[in-house]
Predict the 3D structure of the following.
Amino acid sequence: METDTLAPKKRATKKSTTSSAKTGKTAASKETESAKDISKTYNKFKQFHGRGYTGMKVGRSHKWYYDKGEWHETKVTPDLWEISYDVTKRRAGHAPEGSGVPVGTEYHWFILAHQDVEKLNANDYSTSLTGIKYKLAFKRAGKEKWNATTKTERKRLVKLLQDYIVQLEKDPVPIEFEYKGKKYQGEGIPTPQICNEYHCFELGITLNDENLGIIHCTDKGWKMKNVKDQKFVNAIGLQIAEWYKENP
């Protein structure tokens, strides 16, 4: 009786082991294929509003952790400060195999952002930064020259700032609604270069005189990285969508 009972278990174990081996092989194969697909997708030529580009697809995002850095600031006028910041940033997770640029690649970005600060005690401040960064130039790994001259970078920066000024001088998208018994009133300022002839896909949101960051119109609905309450985000997005419907 014991032999009859144990025999099927042994056979089942052997079968299970064989099946696991096959599954492992298949998973490894799929992982390799996935890495190849990511590499092809990253380097594939893409289009955005008629402009060609390569690299990470528009709409995707990175998450980084910043080491303990050094922020220096010098007061230049009553309202103007000169700042500098040096730090190493580290990816949350790992870059997919075959994606990204070679080690040694350099970038020159220009940042337009809101920094919201609250004094907590004599020595500490809470701080958050929301805004946009714009690529002015890059230098390929192993190369001596940047892909743009200083003059070209300046022209690109002037164009960016001019586009931003145009958006600021236009009437903003008015936002007014009530959520959980509280009234909210403010506006949405379209982000430069993210608008078509009908509407804008990203807007900087200010409600009740507080900057909340940028809202994004995606295939999966409205998203805000700094706001956790999705129903609140949807309420903001609904106001924007209705305004564009009434003001085509």
User: Anything to note?
Assistant: The chain has two domains: 53-169, 173-246. The radius of gyration is 26 Å. Residues 53-169 form one domain. The first helix runs from residue 2 to 43.
